[in-house]
Amino acid sequence: MELQRGKQVSGRSTANLSVVAPPHPTDMDSSIVTDSIRDAWGRTRELLFERFDPARWLKFGFVAMLGASVLQGSAGFNGCPPAVPSSGAEQGPGAVLGGREALEAVGNALRWFGDNLANLAVLAIGLLLIWIVVSLAVLYIRSVFRFVFVDCVAAPAEPALGASTRRHAGEGLSLMGWYLAIGLVGLLMVALAVVPLVASGGMLGSGELLPTALGVGGILALLGAGFVAVLGFALLLALTEDLLVPAMYAGGCGVFAGWRLVGRAWRGRFWEVVLFYVLRMLLAIGAGFVAGIVGMVAALLLILPALSLGGLFAAVGAFGASMSGSMVYLAVPAVIVVGLGMAVVSYIANCLMLPVSVFFQAYSLAFIGRLDATLKTF
Predict the structure, then answer these.
(1) 36: exposed, middle or buried (C-beta count within 10 Å: 0-12, 13-18, 19+)?
(2) What is each CA distance from 364 to 127, 205, 367, in whole angstroms?
(3) Is residue 243 part of a domain?
(4) Which of 138, 295, 321, 378 would suit a FRET pair with 347, their CA atoms being 20 to 30 Å apart?
(5) Are 254 and 174 spatial neighbours (Cβ–Cβ below 8 Å)?
(6) What angle do CA 127, 128, 130 make, to 5 degrees?
(7) How far apart are CA 261 and CA 248, in angstroms?
């Protein structure tokens, strides 16, 4: 059976591709997986080593940082008085006075919270909204650059970042919606597990044999269901990254059409998909050693933002300011310094790990291209 297709997707032509009828479901062609590994290594060598270009490494490392990493962070401020050295042998009126002062401080803090409860609620809601907006923006950037990174690996010519970003904005938005749906389903499952978990915990405290046994059984059942759910979500995310994203890129389509392409590609190819993941896990073990070395280098580089932060406090202290005052006035600059330092370290780590990232991405692209010739990208 042959199917002629003529279309242009992201600058790639898929005209005049021959689609061979899938084999019988009981057949397994392991060469599909092994040839995919060979193709992936050839593509990695071609992109990064045969015509070594430092600018390309820096560019691809930047795209990998945005497209393969989820940025997480939190900032908080804790105002506390300077610690006063004390000894456990201290006794007498001074210790009693210190206890009274602590109780008075707690009482004052509770009264302050009560007087400012409305303002604190507004502040909490505002911070929550800001966190939601920033998280959605980061997820969208990550989703779009996920396809930009695929474009860097699969495109016949090195893509321009601006053009590639605009070209894959729609696919990134669709992928973002898919990730949000997965996350909401996970939150719903956690919420549904709260009631039986509380009920089982209440049975444990009854002191009677039958309710205690039922409580233990309920908790064990919830733990088993949670373990299965975690495995299911991990499998779904793996299929999303390794098969759905390449299918969406090759087909220039959204999530639902991408899943249809994935289903068509691996129809009758179940054992090839299993072998693909077995070899991928084995390759990931080797990549883990490389990641460990890069992680040690990154850990050493984290000293730089720490030294910069210490230099800021030392500079302020040189002008006679107290440490507590320095913490108040330098809170925002300190967060900026630490954030920039971590971003630089992440960028360097992604550049060092670029051959691994490119290889695994090329492996997924080559595999799904061999499952279905209409999804072949290189």
Answers:
(1) buried
(2) 39, 51, 5
(3) yes
(4) 378
(5) yes
(6) 65
(7) 8
The total of structural domains in the chain comes to: 1
Q: By the 8 A CB rule, do 377 and 6 touch? A: no
Instruction: Give the contacts of 252 (CB within 8 A, at least 6 positions apart).
Output: 7, 9, 10, 171
CA 8, 9, 10, 12 torsion-angle sign: negative
Is 351 within 8 Å of 338 (Cβ atoms)? no
Give 3-state DSSP helix, strand, coil % of the chain, rounded to 5. Answer: 75, 0, 20
- Give the predicted TM-score (pTM) of the model: 0.72
12 DSSP β-pair partners: 9
For residue 85, is it within any domain? Answer: no
User: What tokens were used for 155?
Assistant: 């495109």
Instruction: Mention every residue, 6+ apart, whose C-beta is less than 8 A from residue 270.
Output: 25
Q: How far is 311 from 142, CA to CA, in rounded Å?
A: 33
Tens-digit pLDDT profile for residues 140-186: 999 999 999 999 999 999 999 999 999 999 999 999 999 999 999 99
Place of tokens 């008085």: 81
The verdict on residue 75 lying in a domain is: no
- Determine the Cα–Cα distance for residues 158 and 151; give it in Å rounded to an integer: 8
In a domain, 146, yes or no: yes
Two structure tokens written together for 312: 């800021």
Long-range pairs of 229-237 with CB within 8 A, sequence gap ≥ 24? 229/186, 229/189, 233/182, 233/186, 236/182, 237/182
Convert the pLDDT of each residue in 248-306 to its tens digit: 999 999 999 999 999 999 888 899 999 999 999 888 888 887 777 777 776 676 666 66
Tokens of 300: 């050493």
Provide the total of helices (H) and of strands (E) in the chain, helices listed first: 14, 2
Reported as half-sphere exposure (CB side, CA atoms, 13 A), residue 377 has a value of 29
Spatial contact of 314 and 71, defined as CB atoms under 8 Å apart = no
Q: What three-state secondary structure class fits 79? A: coil
Domain extent, residue 107, equals: 8-70+96-375
Residues in the chain: 378
CA dihedral 205, 209, 214, 217 (to 10 degrees): 90
Spatial separation of the C-alpha atoms in residues 223 and 204, rounded to whole Å: 16
